[in-house]
Each structure stands twice: as structure tokens, then as C-alpha cells.
Amino acid sequence: MEDIIINSENLIEEVSLNFKRYLYTQINWNNRLIGIKGARGTGKTTMLLQMLKASNLRMSEKAYFTLDDIYFLGNSLLETGKLFYQQGGKLLVLDEVHKYPSWSQEIKNLYDRYRDLQIVFTGSSIVDISTREGDLSRRALMYELQVLSYREYLHYQYGMGYPVLKLEELLNSKESIRSLFPKDFKPLANFRGYLKFGYYPYQTEDRLGYFQRLRQQSRLIVEYDMAELKGFDIRHAKKMLQLLFVVAQQVPFKPNINKLAEKTGIHRNSINNYLYFLEEARLLSLLQASGSSAALLQKPEKIFMENSNLLYALSEDAPEIGSVREVFFHNQVSAKHKLSMPKSGDFLIDWKYVVEMGGKNKDSRQILDLPNSWLVKDDLEYPVGKSIPLWLFGFLY
């Protein structure tokens, strides 16, 4: 255990506290069992190391263990946690728990046996703790970390700190929106860069290899992480990747199940299951019709890539701006609000607000007679009448 303790201390010492993800301040760090889900590359590990570094506990009282470490191939989590506790440990952070087969049962045992031990664990976005042996759902306070918002990107990349906006404030307080930003702030100056490169914190490390890294990350999610999904046969990973690639060439679109089945070699009766798995892995997003049943695995009205960086990375040709704007809007708004497809317009937010997307020449004829309806334009700096700038929806978290 000495080696993983040394590694823990080194990682805690080296992590920077300069930038913290939005979720850092929303987590109740006093809870005794905390779970954090999220897709690869969103910054879960960094956030937990920051929490450990900021803790007032002595270094010997806190530790970070990643369960994909080779150490855990020959040592049990339960025994390691017991030894850590016996040596005075008070705060244990467990990363990548889904890589360890009996993680939920052993975390439950640690939680039940050692009442003054706090445990924080992270897992892939595909992890559903309510279906795991031991069922931690009644004990753990769960959170999910999203990709960087446009607001966070400006802070992380350029040091620009701006407040989070509530949806109602964004829609109804048009005159006061401008006053929240400095006079010299140019909201569109970095927006295109964000849409292509800004969703993951590691984008600063290698801009030239960024898309290749996203493609590799997508493959790892399908071939490695999704093995943990209940009902997913890893032998179908190649077809899953093929489906993801086919969808990336034409999203957002209304899916034709027969054509998708023909292009991918997946039986038409399995397409919805595959789409559902890809959504659980945070590679795709599915939009259902407003008023449709909440039944699982129904055919979606539209399919989107989970974010526009993935769209650029997986598209053979440069995606159309109309596709990019819809993918961005869906990604940023669905993090905090329920989206569905209305009878008129492009999106229905929280079953109340209708949104029509467009560029500078878009007019409001399609939603003219609809109450609580707005135009969202991607070339606008600040709200004008019923038109709201697309970039503003990147300030919801």
C-alpha cells in the first residue's frame, strides 16, 4: 500500500487550485458518502485532488486511490480501505470505481463499518449505482459533472470570470444582461473556438492532436467503459462505433431506423438499444417529442452528438453551422433543464418555452403566434426584441 499512498501524496501536492469546475461549489462535501459521475476527460480527477488539497486534514489522514491501478488486481478495496482507516485515515477518494468489479459492495461495507470515514468516489457516466450489488443509492449523494460550459471555457482559457445565468433571467431580463459584462467584452470573439475545441479541460495540452484524442476517447468509452453497462454485449462494440460514426455524419436528424440498420449491419430491433447505450455513455443525445411517454428505448425524434467538439472530431467533412448550433444548444441547456421537441419550433424547454434556432436572417414566422417563444441566433451579441444570442445559453452553469 505504500506505493499508492506515495502516489496519492504526489498528485495532491502537484494539483493546481487556480481553476475549479462549476460543480466544486455545488457539492456538499460534508456528506459521508459522495458519488460523482461524468464522461471521460471532464475533470473529475482534478476536482477531487483539489478537494483533497484544500482539506484541512493532515496528509496522512486523506488519500486518493484510482481503482484501475495495477495494485487493485491483487489487493482488495475493502482490505486496503480498512488498513487506511486503521492507520488514521479519515477521507478516502476512490477514482474510476467502475474498473473494479465489486466496487459497490465493498464501498458499502466500508461505509457501514467505519462510521467516521468519509468516502468520495467517481465513475463513468454510464454507472447506475441503483442497479449495482449493495445498492448505494440510499446512502450516496450523487452528482454528475458535465463538459465545460462556454462560461467556464472563458474562465479556464482566458481568465474571464462571469456569473452563472438562470434560464428565466436569460429569457426575460434582456435589458440587464448587457450590464453583467464589461463594455469591452466581445462574446463572439472566442465562441467559434469553443465550439470546436473548448468542451474538455485537456484541450490546452495539444490543440493539434485534440480531435484525434477525442476519437480515441470515444473508442475507449465504447470498447472499455461500456462493458460495465447492464445488457451491453462488448462483442458488439465495433457495430456501436460504426453507428456512432454514421450518426456523426448527419446529426441532428430524425432517425430512419431501417436506413440506420442497413448502414451499420445492426438489426433494426436493436437500433434503439444501441442509441440508448451511446446516450448513457455521453456520446449521443436523444430528443423525444413533447408529450411522448417516458418509456425507455422508444425511437427518438432527433439525434445529436453529445457536444460540438465530438461533432467536429467524428465528422468526415466540416459540419454545417446549423448542426453545430443545435448540438451546442442541446448540450448546454439539457445539463440543467428538460428538452423535448415541440410541434412548432426546434426545442421545448421544461414543457414551457419554445425556441426556434437560426442565423442572422432567421425570422419568427414559425413561432409568431406561440406564447413563451423566442428566436435564438448565433450571430447576435446581445438580446434584441424576441431574439436571444446563442452564446448566452453557455452561461447556465
Can you tell me about this structure?
The chain has 397 residues and is an alpha/beta fold. The protein folds into 2 domains: 2-145, P-loop containing nucleotide triphosphate hydrolases (Rossmann fold, 3-Layer(aba) Sandwich), CATH 3.40.50; 150-395, no CATH class. Helices cover 34% and strands 14% of the residues. It has 14 helices and 12 strands. It has helices spanning 2-14, 44-54, 77-86, 103-113, 150-158, 167-172, 174-177, 191-197, 210-223, 237-248, 257-264, 271-280, 308-314, 321-334; strands at residues 33-38, 62-66, 91-95, 118-124, 141-145, 284-287, 302-305, 339-340, 347-349, 353-358, 373-377, 387-389. It has a 5-stranded parallel beta sheet with strand order 2-3-4-1-5. Strands 8-9-10-11-12 form a 5-stranded mixed beta sheet, covered by helices on one side. It is globular. 41% of the residues are buried. It comes from Belliella marina. One of its GO terms (molecular function) is ATP binding. InterPro entries: AAA_14, P-loop_NTPase.
> Which oligomerization state do the chains in this entry correspond to?
single chain
**Rg estimate, integer Å:** 22 Å
Measured by DSSP, the beta-strand proportion falls in 5-15%
Count of helical stretches? 14
Tally of separate domains: 2
Topology, number of strands = 12
Main β-sheet description: 5 strands, parallel
Give the mean pLDDT. Answer: 91
The rough form would be described as: globular
Range of helix content? 25-40%
